[in-house]
Amino acid sequence: MSSRTPLRGYRAGFFFVVVLLSAVTGFTLWTEMRTGRQVDGLVGEALNRADLIGRIRVYVMSLESAIEAHIRATDDAERKEADAVMEEILSDIRLASDAYTRDMPLGEKAVWLRFNAACQGLADQVRAAAVFSRQREAERARRHLVEGIRPMALEVDALAGQLAQENSDGTRELLGHLATLRVRNTALGAGATLLAILVSMLVGLHIMSVLRRQDATIQGQLEELGRHNQELDSFTRRVAHDLMSPLAPLKGYLTLVRRSGEVKNPGVLEMLAQCESSAVRMGELIEALLRFCRAGTRGEHTAGELDTAVSTLLLEVSQTAAAQGVALERELEAGVAVDCPGQLLQVVARNLLSNAVKYTAGRPEPRVTVRVATAGTDAVLEVTDNGLGMSAATQASLFQPFFRAPEVRGIPGHGLGLATTRRVVEAHGGTLVVHSEEGKGTRMTVRFPKVSGSTLTGGAPATVESGQNRASAARKAL
């Protein structure tokens, strides 16, 4: 099943969800800011109109007081002063009316026309009363004040109150409309958010379904690969056994022919010796292949002492190291038990120590150090040398079967030792880590889970066997 197209669709779905949520958030913030500005503007305009109406009403009452002062004036100077006050008040009323007209709502136009006409009529009545007062007709002026100006002032005040009420009602209606718009926008944003959540949940469910199917496919493929590996190992073991059957008598016949004395030609004897050596190498390679195939299969849980296995191998490796001039240093902690049979521990130690000695021989002051210790809950086997070392490219392919680094292909070996060691270590829950620098040496570190000494098979400590018996036991274990 190809997942490229579905995954592209899921990515598009998530992108759509992100864009939709971002758009909803941006739209909501924008509408809130715009609505807030509109509310502030409407409230400010309403307060301004209310202030203008209040000022006009105050001016009307002041105008009535000013005409009374004009009537009570006793000389021309007081009358002129009263005329100036009246004209100033009338000018203020006119300016306030003009300011109100600029921001006047359409719904207030009819009332405003009546209000404006009443203001004009009031101004005319005031000027007429002022004329009577200037002609020293006080009684007629007072009668005009009572009969003409005060009713007109009351009408202006009533119309101003009606304008204030309409202004309040209109502002309240607009605020209600804005509140409705805000609720509608909020509902729209909530719906879009819910849609985005549903889409994201749907995409998530589809992705989980795809991942479950892929996981099931991978598990099936892993199981099939495991079966194929088991079949391959079984086939390799059968082939190795089949190859060993004719190889053993071949080696024997070659040895008998070479030693029989029937062949006198030195060239033929040399060729027989080379054939015998090749048969021996072939046998070693087949045995190494058998060990490699069996190393990845764990047997029964049997504990072994790591320090005992290393001590046993040191008796064997030390002779080879001494012959090649390699100094062996050891630091072995006693009683380090791990969940791995002693024979397999010897295989691990043999491969690591023999490689260290082999690739250190011939170097200046060759030295190999082996250490067995405990580190927390782990048992550690560490083999360090100052030999050839390895490049990064070599380390990347180090554990591949039959791999030989280009710089050591002139040194005898079949390329299965470290691969076998790693399979043994990992089959028993351990790890193998390599630290190496070209020209400076290598450090191999093996870690096994440590177990208590009471779990050792039979409760008895391991014994030191001869080199021939140890090699035989290791081959039987593998």
Task: Give the strand order of the largest sheet, numbering strands 1, 2, ... along the chain.
Answer: 2-4-5-7-6
Q: What is the count of distinct domains?
A: 2
Main sheet characteristics: 5 strands, mixed
Text of the CATH class of the largest domain: Mainly Alpha
Would you tell me the overall average pLDDT? 75
- Point out poorly predicted stretches: 1-5, 454-478
Q: Number of helical segments?
A: 10
At CATH level 3, the topology of the largest domain is A middle domain of Talin 1
Structural class of the helix and strand makeup? alpha+beta
Coarse shape: rod-shaped
Q: Tell me the radius of gyration.
A: 54 Å
Gap from first CA to last CA: 41 Å
Total strand segments: 7
CATH architecture type of the largest domain: Up-down Bundle
> Helical residue percent?
over 70%
Quaternary structure annotation: single chain
What string gives the helices and strands in order?
HHHHHEHEEHEEHHEEH
Strand percentage, roughly?
5-15%
